[in-house]
Known about the structure:
Helices cover 41% and strands 6% of the residues. By secondary structure, it is mainly α.
Amino acid sequence: xxxxxxxxxxxxxxxxxxxxxxxxxxxxxxxxxxxxxxxxxxxxxxxxxxxxxxxxxxxxxxxxxxxxxxxxxxxxxxxxxxxxxxxxxxxxxxxxxxxxxxxxxxxxxxxxxxxxxxxxxxxxxxxxxxxxxxxxxxxxxxxxxxxxxxxxxxxxxxxxxxxxxxxxxxxx
Length: 172
């Protein structure tokens, strides 16, 4: 469930705050595209609505006010889902608990690829937005409770043994 907007959430990094080219280059490595809407137009493929990123096929739909964490989260769903789900993707990425953890872990890794973001900012923005982790924060989860997410990503060839992205999509 999407949380209600709070003052803390209003301070998260938004698409308008970063280099669009840097994000486009990152997603292009996975064969994905960014499609930006203007103003407060409805975002196609947005599961939660409002400013949340949308996912339709290989396109991540955004507005200037879309949080970067949301963009990377939806992109990571595309990366982490199997090819059968990817072929019919529109709005609901689906997936199970293990895949969702893999998505969260990978979005943190990919945040390091954006000059304006980095993992520390991603952790803070995830916490501000209301991502829920058993240890109380995204950083604590990543450091002390994400071994299963890391193993899942390695087993699907999405990161290597040194936890670096392989720039591949899940194929099974």
